[in-house]
Design a protein that fits this description.
This protein is an alpha/beta fold. The protein folds into two domains: about 220 residues, TIM Barrel, CATH 3.20.20.60; about 50 residues. The chain contains twelve helices and ten strands. Strand 1, helix 1 and strand 2 form a beta-alpha-beta unit. It is globular, with a radius of gyration of 20 Å. The protein starts with 7 loop residues before the first strand and ends with a helix. The model has no long low-confidence stretch (mean pLDDT about 95). Bound molecules: coenzyme A (COA) and magnesium ion (MG). Magnesium ion binds next to loops. The site of magnesium ion has 6 residues, from loops.
Amino acid sequence: MDTRPFRSVLYIPGSKERALEKSTGLATDAIIFDLEDAVAVDEKANARKLLAEKLQVLDYGARAKLVRINALSTEWGAADLEVIAEARPEAILLPKVDEAAHVEALARLLDASPETAETRIWAMMESPLGVLNAAEIARAPRMAGIVMGTNDLAKDMGCRFRTDRLPLLSALQLPLIAAKAVGIVAVDGVYNAFKDEEGLRAECEQGRDMGFDGKTLIHPAQLAVANAVFAPSEAEIDLASRQIAAFDDATARGEGVAVVDGKIVENLHIVTAKQVLAKAEAIAAMGE
Ligand code: COA
Ligand code: MG
């Protein structure tokens, strides 16, 4: 499991030179450099060249860097991979993954080049078939994370946008459960109305409650909300510290259970408490 935070995962169109250059210092935990839907057909070839060059000279620090290529079934996918390989990408985000075979095909291509020997694979979960096959996809070779593609999913499901996302809940939860089952990162879909901060906050909170590690974002104005919502709160950090202290005391007395704030604390709560503190430390290490 990746121990870095993934609260905010910003899409940057691979064709936008200015955005690529400006974004090295943004407060985003991870970046998806996009060659797929954010890049127009006429710009595909230029974008992949530009991105490969920029990734080799710009320093985006310790944050996770994913490159979303076009699907290998398209006319651009293979060339995207070949050109981007020069930049030794840490991860390729594969769109439109319907079955494990799509990941396996990419893994074979990565196996074939020394430049991509260490490259991990992330999968977009954005089709009904992909959602139904999420368990086998999450277990496929090199898999390190999933990203929900909620716009594509809503389109294929024929469902309506609602603020509670009730029509999408099963489609969100199946891939999330698949990711948790194998211990890989799971990131929620984008919130399209990038100027609506309250709407974004509500959707981040829903994703956080469900267990997503963070949210994909389309605009830097969305970073602060996602970073805040997906971070452990002061109250959670305080509670975790007190649970660990109380449990240590109980253990020293030969007891297996402690009580904090009128609630029972057992071994399993300590696992969660330690995860909360580890996440807070990882966030602090990002330099915020
Ligand atoms: N990443 C990095 N920087 C971004 C950015 C992004 N996703 N979106 C906007 N910016 C930058 C702009 O370059 C601009 O910087 P500048 O003023 O120095 O030129 C600044 O933020 C303000 O941008 P703004 O004018 O508010 O946005 P816009 O109207 O130009 O663009 C979008 C709005 C939605 C088109 C744009 O944010 C975007 O392309 N987002 C990504 C879309 C995407 O990747 N989609 C695929 C996945 S769903
Ligand atoms: Mg998509």
